[in-house]
Amino acid sequence: MTENNLYINYELITDKLADIKKSVALLNTIGQVEPQKFYKDEILVSGAKYQLILSIEAAQSICNHLAARIAKEAPRSYADCFRILGDNGILSRDLVQKLVSMARFRNLLANQYGKVDNSIVLDILKHNIVDLITYTKEIKLFISSARG
């Protein structure tokens, strides 16, 4: 058992990983809808935006916890947190850049929800949701090694 093991809240991480998994499943379902149907259905668009916010915030919650517990560093922004995990070898460099973009998009959704171009939302559903799956895998790998 490592010294860091005493400080990691595994229950929090497990709960947030489950939140991401649930959101990703819903986002994948929405992403399979024909584009024209997606654009015309305000419930689908709204659901996609909301699930994106939820999943990114769950990833952020894990990130903040590990940054504080492992790196002993407070992020200056949502995006900075992922950089901290990358600098500490918890996340791969390629994934860090994708998550930084995702965190910035979350800020856009949260602050300018109605102004977000729905084609960007659909593009993210079709091409970038895999980044959240990769994130969960890398976090699980780190947690597995931290538990010893």
From TrEMBL:
Keywords: Hydrolase, Nuclease, Toxin-antitoxin system. Transmembrane segments: none annotated. GO terms for cellular component: toxin-antitoxin complex. Signal peptide: none annotated. One of its GO terms (molecular function) is RNA nuclease activity. It comes from the Bacteria. NCBIfam families: HepT_toxin. Belongs to the HepT RNase toxin family. This is Uncharacterized protein YutE (UPF0331/DUF86 family).
